[in-house]
Amino acid sequence: MLHRDTVDTTVLPPGERFGMWLDLVARTSAPLRIQSAHTGDFAARADFLDLGPIQLVEYRYPSLDATRTRKLVRQSDPELYVLALTTGGVGTSSQDGRRSEIQAGEFTFYDASRPHDVCHHATEPGRTQASSIITLIPHAALPLPPQRMAALYGGRMSGSEGVGALLAQFLLQVSGHPEQYHAADAGRLGAVGLDLATTMLGRHLVAEDAVPTEVRHRALVSQVQAYVHRHVGDPALSPRVVADAHHISLRSLHRLFEAEETTVASYIRDMRLTRCRRDLSDPALRTQPVQAIAARWGFPDKAHFSRAFRAAYGISPQAYRESTANPARIVNRPASMVNVSRAD
């Protein structure tokens, strides 16, 4: 499981909570001067995830007004960019003369090596908390022209469309469910997050040519895979549909997958089979007909599904379902089938 460090002020009496938060902020690589209207009871939490090239921090608090002054920058310069996704509440971001109001579902971007102001308040005081997911990106890790990044400071970017939506989904998934990943996945997850962030920032610079080709390639593969995951139950899903949805030619889509050691059609089929196999082994779905499950995941033809499932797993769908319901029966099967069952 990914290692997560947590700071939770509610372990202390209400009167001591804001002081605990001040200590936390003072120890960060980019200290801030902070104020809050809730100093008497600052119920807050911070969760830290180290993903190799980037770090994620999920924050929750009632309200916060923060300033990074020139003096604080001189005292500590971490050379970090900050990409913040607001997930709850409303805030403002100001840097280099640019000021934006940030709503839930939007990103803002700034440089921790320059003075800036950030305000973040819950929209319903006393009933909900302000929340955000912060991505800390070292200057050296972002493969975009540093001299052009100032155009984005203090601005806002959508987290509900295009690459921004994919990045927001990625951040919410990883920060919300670290238990679903192995510690060894951290570096790869960080690389995926960095690629998506780079692509989103590059597009907002109206300078996609500034994004390295390899980064654009990996980000587009992630977009395509996410699209397949969302539409895998549609029997009409095909490489052509996927290509059209991403405004690229079918030939370009096939070239995109050459380095993935699979074809687009195979990726769609394997994803459908994985979903079917999962549902066939689910006790809660035991009364559902095999064909109903197959149809749900894009296999309307019973014979075609049976052939594809047997080719992939060496066992018929019905026999696989029975083996998961009665594990003891696997002992009497050929060794190849025993291995298939254990692989699940």
TrEMBL record:
Q: Which InterPro entries match?
A: AraC-bd_2, AraC_XylS_family_regulators, Homeodomain-like_sf, HTH_AraC, Tscrpt_reg_AraC-type_HTH
| Ranges where the HTH araC/xylS-type domain occurs | 222-323
Q: Supply the name of the protein.
A: Helix-turn-helix domain-containing protein
Provide this UniProt record's keywords sorted from A to Z: DNA-binding, Transcription, Transcription regulation
Q: What is the lineage of its organism?
A: Bacteria, Bacillati, Actinomycetota, Actinomycetes, Micromonosporales
